[in-house]
């Protein structure tokens, strides 16, 4: 079986860790969904591993748009969503549906947990060692299954997906900004204009937190009252540690 093509959208790195642990030495070429993707036909028979984070119980729309550039011809696929310990709602079903529409057959699926990229006090430090061991176990089980079977899996989710989330705010920029432009170059949606990195295009920003995580001067922040309110709401519903769920 040829190496897995791995497609990942990981603005702040949690999803990438899960993808790397699942693929292990099976990792072949990597499609970075944080950047534009050209039409990408898959070689016949090559498995596709797609790993995306959950935003508001859905997949980030821009990641879905880029994922749709991948063209399968009955290739086996492994669908994985990564969420910040609240819930993954309809995201895994949405991923299965998108991969199926790309011409793939989803033979394995899973939901894993990573630190919440907005409220860092939720699921702090995840994926931890046990999560990563579970990823390795899932990768091996998926590889064993697709060596012998193309039977598709059922995954939870409402076929009438939740509405896409509306972002209430964009990151603010403090006086510490030196205008280096790293946020401009790394923003997955092109929401920060090169002409003025202190601005953010609210129509494009998906609040993925990448600019906040990457800024060398910590000059991009969420307004503290917004972050405090969001964290308080999550503390009430997402503090009990969730466990990985595997569908094989
Ligand atoms: C805009 C946004 C919405 C999110 N929505 C959810 C959610 O609905 N449920 C959940 O459990 N986690 C949610 N999270 C947390 C992310 O799914 C989680 O932190 C993920 O690991 C982020 O991936 P990354 O580290 O690769 O960027 C959300 C994060 C962001 C930025």
What's the N-to-C terminus distance?
Answer: 18 Å
Low-pLDDT stretches: none
Helix/strand-derived category reads alpha/beta
CATH architecture of the largest domain: 3-Layer(aba) Sandwich
Ions and ligands: flavin mononucleotide
Find the CATH topology of the largest domain.
Answer: Rossmann fold
Helix content: 25-40%
* CATH class division of the largest domain: Alpha Beta
- Please, what is the average pLDDT? 96
Q: What is the strand content?
A: 15-25%
How many structural domains can be distinguished in the coordinates?
Answer: 2
- The gross shape turns out to be globular
CATH superfamily of the largest domain: Flavodoxin domain
Keyword list:
single chain, 248 residues, alpha/beta, Alpha-Beta Plaits, 6-stranded mixed beta sheet, two-stranded parallel sheet, 7 helices, 29% helix
Tell me about this structure.
The chain is an alpha/beta fold and 248 residues long. Helices cover 29% and strands 19% of the residues. It contains 7 helices and 10 strands. It has a 6-stranded mixed sheet with strand order 2-1-4-6-7-10, sandwiched between helices. A two-stranded parallel sheet has the order 3-5. Helix 1 crosses helix 4. The longest helix is centred in the middle third of the chain and has 20 residues, at 129-148. The chain starts with a strand and ends with a strand. Bound molecules: flavin mononucleotide (FMN). Residues 10-16, 53-57, 82-87, 114-118, 207-209 line the site of flavin mononucleotide (FMN).
């Amino acid at each position: 079986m040829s190496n897995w093509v791995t497609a990942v959208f990981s603005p702040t790195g949690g999803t990438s860790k899960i993808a790397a642990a699942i693929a292990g030495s099976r990792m072949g070429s990597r499609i970075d969904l944080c950047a534009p993707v050209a039409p990408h036909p898959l070689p016949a028979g090559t498995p596709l591993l797609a790993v995306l984070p959950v935003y508001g119980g859905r997949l980030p729309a821009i990641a879905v748009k880029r994922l749709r550039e991948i063209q399968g011809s009955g290739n086996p696929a492994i669908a994985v969503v990564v969420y910040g310990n609240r819930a993954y709602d309809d995201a895994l079903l949405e991923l299965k549906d998108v991969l199926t529409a790309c011409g793939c057959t989803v033979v394995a699926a899973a939901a894993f947990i990573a630190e919440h990229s907005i409220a860092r006090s939720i699921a702090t430090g995840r994926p931890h060692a046990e999560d990563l061991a579970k990823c390795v176990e899932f990768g091996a089980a998926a590889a064993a299954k697709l060596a012998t079977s193309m039977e598709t899996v059922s995954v939870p989710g409402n076929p009438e997906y939740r509405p896409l989330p509306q972002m209430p705010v964009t990151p603010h920029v403090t006086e510490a900004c030196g205008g280096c432009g790293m946020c401009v170059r790394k923003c997955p949606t092109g929401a920060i204009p090169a002409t003025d990195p202190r601005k953010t295009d609210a129509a494009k920003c998906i609040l993925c937190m990448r600019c906040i995580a990457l800024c060398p001067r910590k000059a991009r922040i969420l307004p503290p009252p917004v972050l405090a309110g969001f964290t308080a709401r999550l503390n009430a519903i997402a503090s009990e540690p969730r466990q990985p769920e595997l569908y094989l």
